[in-house]
Amino acid sequence: MDLSENFPDATNSSTPLIQMSSIWKVFDGVPVLRGIDLDLYKGEVHALFGGNGSGKSTTMKILSGVYRADSGQIRVNGRPATIERPTDAHNVGIYMVPQEPHIFPHLSVEENLLTGLDKPKGEVREQIERLSEEMEFHIPMHTSAGSLSIANQQLLEIIRGLLRDVSVLILDEPTSALTFREVDHLFAKMKALTNRGIGIFFISHRLGEVLEISRRVTALRNGEVVLSSLTKDLSSSDLVQAILPDDGGSGSVPASQPDSDDSGAPRGEVPVLEVKSLKGEVFDDISLSVKEGEVVGLAGLVGAGRTELAEAIVGIDEHARGDVYIDGRLVRNRTPRKCQDLGLVYVPEDRHAHGIFLDLPHLYTTTSSILPQLGRIFISFARERSIGEKYMDQLRIKANSLYQLARTLSGGNQQKVVLSKALASYPKCIILDEPTRGVDAQARQDVYTLIKNLKAQGVGILLISSEMEEIVEFSDRVLVMHQGTIIEELSREEITLERVMEASFGMVGGQIS
Amino acid sequence: MNRLLRNRELLVFLLLVVMVIGVGLVSPHFLSPRSLRNVANSSLILILVSVGEMFVVLTRGLDVSVGATMGLSAVVLGLALNAGVALPIAILLALIVGVLAGAVNSVGVAIFRVPPIIMTLGTLGMYRGTMRILTGGSWIETIPANIKHLAKLTFLEIHMFVWVTLAVILLAVLVLKKFKPARYFYLVGDNEEGALFLGIPIQRTVFVAYILAGFFSAMAAVVFVAQVGFVPMQTGNGQELKALAALVIGGVSLTGGVGTPVSAFIGALFLKTVDSMLIFLKVPGYWSNAVGGIILLVAVYFDYRLREAVNLRQLLSRRKVRMEHIKKVRSAVEANRNGHTHEES
Questions:
Q1: Neighbouring-strand partners of residue A92
Q2: What is the pTM (predicted TM-score) of this model?
């Protein structure tokens, strides 16, 4: 077990099982991996840590043959390997268990295990029996795989890998759907496997788990390795520090100094939006409020439950329970329409799916929220056009005419069209969900200007964003959501990149939660 | 009870038996060997088309050209016989046409990635058009009697075609159960991404599925020509929809991965038996389609509810896991916060 003492840096030891060097990958012209170097030794758990979009999953998908690297080299046991398909990876002894296990739900456990194997059945059955014993996977072989718990589906996937005699397992966020007992069980099994000499890559953004199970950690940010070290030399804040954005490391940039002189603190006392103990599928007992002219940042990692919360507030998720007050009035049986009529609008995260009518003139999206105001039965074109022109002008939407199809606009202009739809109903409170995702720099500035203007006009804003800088810059107050609950509330003076980032990863008061 | 609900084929079969006995009580003549033989004979075409369609549906595909393929094969068979081609060769020709018609769909769906519904709607039109081009639009009549004799051969009082169909289904069942590549139909339809990860040849599997659909449609065409003795231009019209209905009733999931040839067989038999019952109950023939539609809707609805109930269990257990996490995180945060303020004070 003191392997850890022997070869931390591959200087004096045996060849690594895996050695990836200067791996590059570009998607749609955007580099997502910029020269990743990574290795894995026999019998160790090597954790990959990082925020959303840092490149950890992409790196592992390249290693397991789901993607192909644009450049770089992979060596397996010291020999260069070409991995172009998942089966290539299996052949050199690498198996990846994806976040959602790839099982065949309608087939039996046994059929799932036997699939794609080229060994004689009798021999495989023996092996299955032995591995099931080792993994404590006590499920009758004829059970249909779809009825297994996620934990057992994962064990099934692991056994599937072991049946291929692999020496490297990749586990992509394996714990996200497990109960605590199941996590303990999984970790025990991971230890048993490393004792057998198997190397494990463990992708996670749960600090506590990374520190508990791994021998080494590599942290990624923006497709680059920013830290690689033995776990025992690290604390949780070292890890969070490592993945902070470049300029933010220095810490305490006070929140919104630039606009503190124009609008100052929020004006009204009555909240324009108040949520009281809202419960939904992926979050529980959430309370928050947004006052007139206040920007409340809602930070957190993807999957923390922020979008689901927003959808519950405006009534898209009708099963959520709890009270929502808009402008001081309790709203029962909420629908997005009702919320809009009372002054609350939601600008969704996925604009193509939920925000815009792509194959229609962009004007139609703008006015879609206020059709009743354009005439009782027939649409008044003149009024529609004047509204469209107003927002094209105000938001600087670049289009040939009001009737250019929304699909042909750039991402930034599409986002402005979505915003114009929200503004057209003159809301008192607006929920912006990732308003600058996938928009160009110019449009991003325009969105920021809009946020400031709305604030100055007294509109309350709930700003959901995964860009911590955005949250820090514009918020009067920040709520940080972590695994379905608000774990931190920071007042204007307390907001720093570091604290927002730490809380997003579940650290509050220097402790992991 | 639970077991029974899960074994759809048995459930439908029992329902069928009950209905047959019920109708028999009202109209005892229905249970005569002669009448039951008629029901069996008239079901063969739909059974064959449905089993072929099943392979495509297993892969999560859809083939609406099976009726047109059947029509085209029937036309080729009729024309060949009228041109004096020997019977076995003419039948072989018809089967080859079916395979080719299926292969065109395969190329479109598996290689050029045309969505199945669009590809097969296109070929549906093409094949129906080809029927008219080949015949000039007129029916094929005066087909030599030798093929009609095939339909009259019997063994143990039961027609040869019934035996052949049963044998084909038995063969299909065995192949699907025991032959390794046949398992791929289920894998591809159940979880295509998962199949890709395990190196299953997805393209090849889909390719073979559409060819099998064409082949089974051509077999149905042979039965049709032998039983009817002429080939109208409407041959095979609407078979694709009836086959899909039969699959749903028999328990083949339209979302892929679930079903056996037995499901297709039972579903088709059920639909055709209901047709015959309506005649015995003196319901006018034009009611048959509407009743078929109602049965289909009822079957789809219960199918949906059953599957939903299974999903719900999974959803609930996932929610339990999430809530457990939320609770733990919250209590940990509170503990940390208290510890924190404690230090400060």
A1: none
A2: 0.77
